[in-house]
């Protein structure tokens, strides 16, 4: 992947930080399976499965820890 | 999602922090599957399954780490 | 849940901290499935399954990290 | 459990800290299933299953993070 | 493995840090199963499975926490 | 286990730290199942399974977090 998609972990608000955590989680998938057509086909498998959605939320939570620490938890906002 | 749902990680008490962790965990699911009707249908799958409930509690625990650190563990309370 | 069940993360000893971590883990389940009758029925499912017990211990370990950090690891005791 | 089994997270060496992490992991199981006879019966289920052993090692790793931080990583040793 | 593949956790940008986290995740696999032919055969198993891809993204997220902390979250960039 | 296998978390390089994380992960398994013959028999179960290898890499990633923090991320190297 030659494109620049992550130049900073700093975000203006916690919500943007949460959305960056989602981006990081998706990129982790995309680096492992770069074929977007395959990813598209797999979507119903997890988007309609409760445990898969919990697992997705889990990865987002881990990445949000990183983004939140980077932003010193947006304490000064 | 254009609405603002997360403007701060700071809460008055640890219990409110725990409840924010639950919100974060649910939002992680909702960003992945925004269709609330689908989410509603999936509810019995995990709400009546011991391992799914443990997995849900796991994600809450991760998010609670983040919220607790943001609040310096409510030490001054 | 209107009741106050978590007013502080500070405990007198590490063991009480571990027990608080267990409370947090159970509350994570209970917020997701508030029906105590359902929870009671599900108990044999995980209490007699080795992997489910490991998963329960896993969530406790995560919450214990939070409680231990809040108490500065009870270093001054 | 009225007995005192955890009075400190401080250990003399990293290895003792790792062993304390194992104790914490087992206690997490035991608080969930206090019946030692049941636990004894379940032992073959996980002790002979590769994924269960990895899961056990995972919980130990989480608890070791806590114990290692408590001991400031035994840096002065 | 006698070759040097990890001489520093410091990277110029967060994106390079994320890519290092991917390298660490793959090395964790490769140390456990060094036979590249076996790894090649297993690829379709996880690259076409939604839950396996989420699990891969999970490990990357953990390693990214480490790399991000090492780089002080690239805050000065 | 009476032998001393972990006297320090400090390593000269990040790569040695990663290898120590692997040792910690394996020890977590070995404390749970000390019978090396059983472990040997189980090896094909996880070494040829993509999800098991990801799970192994996951535990290594957790332990690497600990070792990396202990070494202050080898920043001065």
What attributes does this structure have?
homohexamer, 77 residues, mainly alpha, 3 helices, 68% helix, flat
Task: Report what the structure shows.
The structure is a homohexamer of 77-residue chains. The longest helix of chain A has 21 residues, at 50-70. Chain A starts with 13 loop residues before the first helix and ends in a 7-residue tail after the last helix. By secondary structure, chain A is mainly α. The model of chain A has no long low-confidence stretch (mean pLDDT 95). Helix content of chain A is 68%, strand content 0%. Chain A has helices at residues 14-32, 36-47, 50-70. Chain A has a domain at 34-71. Chains in contact: A-B, A-E, B-C, C-D, D-F, E-F.
What is the compact description of this entry?
Chain A is mainly alpha-helical.
Uncertain ranges of chain A: none
- Helical coverage of chain A, percent range: 55-70%
Structural class of chain A: mainly alpha
Give the termini separation of chain A.
34 Å
Biggest interface reads: A-B, 29 and 34 residues
Percent of residues in beta strands of chain A: under 5%
Oligomer status: homohexamer
Query: What is the global morphology of chain A?
Result: flat
Number of strands of chain A: 0
Sheet with the most strands, sense and barrel status of chain A: none
| Tally of separate helices of chain A | 3
Give the rounded overall mean pLDDT of chain A.
95
User: Any idea what the radius of gyration of chain A is?
Assistant: 14 Å
Order of helices and strands of chain A: HHH
């Amino acid at each position: 992947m030659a494109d620049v998609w992550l130049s900073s972990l700093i975000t203006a608000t916690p919500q943007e930080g949460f959305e960056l955590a989602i981006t990081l989680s998706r990129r982790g998938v995309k680096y492992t399976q770069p074929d977007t057509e395959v990813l598209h086909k797999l979507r119903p498998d997890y988007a309609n499965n409760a445990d898969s959605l919990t697992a997705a939320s889990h990865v987002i939570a881990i990445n949000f820890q990183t983004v939140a620490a980077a932003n010193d938890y947006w304490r000064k906002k």
